[in-house]
Amino acid sequence: MSTASTQQPATEAYTVALEDGGDDVIERAFRFIGGVLTSALGGRGQDVIGESVVVRRRSDRASQLRIDVPDESAGEQILELIAADLEAMTAPEFAEEWLHAEHEGRHVGPS
Which pLDDT score, from 0 to 100, does residue 9 have? Predict the structure, then answer.
């Protein structure tokens, strides 16, 4: 790995955003059905449908980390934390801290 690539800012290599929960269409469909049923029974459907904070590689938009969150407030907090680290770290530092470390998310990129 060259010195230039090891110094690449993390913001040039990765993005982070709050997205609909679930890895694929089938999981999102089941979450949606669960949300509808929960709402019909007087609960908050959004809590079931959920959202995820997702880190994607800029080069190909591939998902690298997905952290499911119970609500928008929790999602915003995690989003801000990851965004701050993207600003402060190099790409290798960010990968080591977030993509290769154990977190409460689903690491969906290559190990």
Answer: 95
The encoded tokens of residue 94 equal: 């960010």
* Mean per-residue pLDDT pooled into runs of 10, the chain (111 residues): 69 94 60 61 58 93 88 89 97 92 56 40
Amino acid 2: pLDDT: 47
- Distances in Å between the Cα of 76 and the Cα atoms of 13, 22, 27, 69, 101 are 21, 17, 22, 9, 21
Q: What are phi and psi of 99, to 5 degrees?
A: -90, -25
- Helix (H) or strand (E) holding 65, with range, is strand 63-69
Structure-token pair, residue 66:
């997905």
For the CA atoms of the chain, what is the radius of gyration? 16
Q: Which residue has the tokens 């993509």?
A: 99
One-letter amino acid at 96 equals E
